[in-house]
Request: fold
Amino acid sequence: MDLDIQAQRLFIPAEQAWAWLKSWSVKNGKRLRTISSVRWPSTVAYHPQSDEIFVSDREDGTVKVLSGKTYDLVKTIQLAKGPDNATTS
Reply:
């Protein structure tokens, strides 16, 4: 999980329940968005300077970079086979 302190959002990857990353409001506990562009999310990191969400995807061994404003996929970074939390079989 990771936290966007400025906008008070919590990002939670569904590592055991495939195909979504959820964004929650810290203010009121309501779900803001369900993001399905990541197939098997594992680790999530929010980068406040670029307003981007980085999510490792164990499905294909990539890191998906999402816009913090629109939650759209900005780019995909291919990782070497076997890194922690992004292993492909």
In short: The chain has a mean pLDDT of 86.
